[in-house]
Structure formats: C-alpha cells, structure tokens
Amino acid sequence: MADIVAETERLVLRTIEDGDAAVQDRLLNTPAVMARLGGVKELHEIEAKHAKSMAMYAREGFSFLFMIEKATGEMVGHCGIKRVDNPLAKNVGDHEVGWLVREDRWRRGYAEEAMRAVLDWAFTRVGAPHVVALTSEANVGSWKLMEKLGMVRREDLDFDDPSYPPEDNPTILYSLTKDQWESTR
Predict the structure, then answer these.
(1) How many whole angstroms separate alpha carbon 69 and alpha carbon 67?
(2) pLDDT greater than 90 at residue 62
(3) pLDDT, averaged across the chain
C-alpha cells in the first residue's frame, strides 16, 4: 500500500509501489519528457530505479514519488528526494530534489506545485539542511523553475558527465538552504 506523503490543491504525492513501472513507462517515458534526462529508458531500468526508490524510502524515509492528479486519479508526474549518487558529482550524498511531468500536463504549474510540497517535506519532516537540483543549461524550463523556487546557482558544483550528450554538459547545480526556503515562503 502506497504512503501519501503530501497533498496539494490538485495533487497527491505518493510513494512508488510494485507494478508502477509499467504506468511510468507508458505515461512518462517518452522522447519529449526524457529528452534532457538521458533519453527513453528500458522497462527494466525503470523497475531498477523503482526498487532503489522503495528501498531508500524504507531506509531513510524519503524517495521519489508519483504525482497523482486529484481530478482524474491519473499519474501526471514523478518528483521527490534522493541522494546525489553520480560519482562524478562534487557533492555525493547531498539531498537532491527533482521532477518530471507528463507531456500532456506541461505548462499547468504541476511541477512547481509538487516541488513546493517536496521542499516543505525535505526541510521539515526529512530534516535536510539544504537541497540541490541538477540539470543542464539546455533544460531552460528546469533551471527557471529552480530559480522560481528560490534556488541559487552553484557553479562550483558543476561537472561534466560523459553519459550525456555535449548539449547537456556540463551538469549544472542549484541549491537551497532551509533558511533560504523559510525566507521565501
């Protein structure tokens, strides 16, 4: 049974369950949605990420979640908290937040709505002293939302990742401290 971690005006943010990989594959694993995230994944890759998320939630009390639209009951996105685990990153182990939204739900404010709830979760119940978010300069929508959420660009944490194409390098980072978050609420 999934845990409901947060609710917003239009969304329920719930934990990932066994069997959710097929839904994610069908609704979120599209060329447009995955364009700046390393491309479309194989189902077994999604299943492995889900297993990792479920284990992290059991172990640490946080993970990535599904965004469920209250009006329809449909999964419209994926968001949450994990640890920075890219070995090329300069801040492995930091709390990392992220999101993606189904293509037919773009430009409706779902990512911002979900991420405000995720940041509240990170700084209150999880107790993160700060969070980071990773993207590329080419992913303009992503870093613009980071800025809208009050996150600050951290060029000192940028790194190159050869598993991404040249247009998505370097990986750039934004961060937000608990104090910064509280001053923008």
Answers:
(1) 7
(2) yes
(3) 94
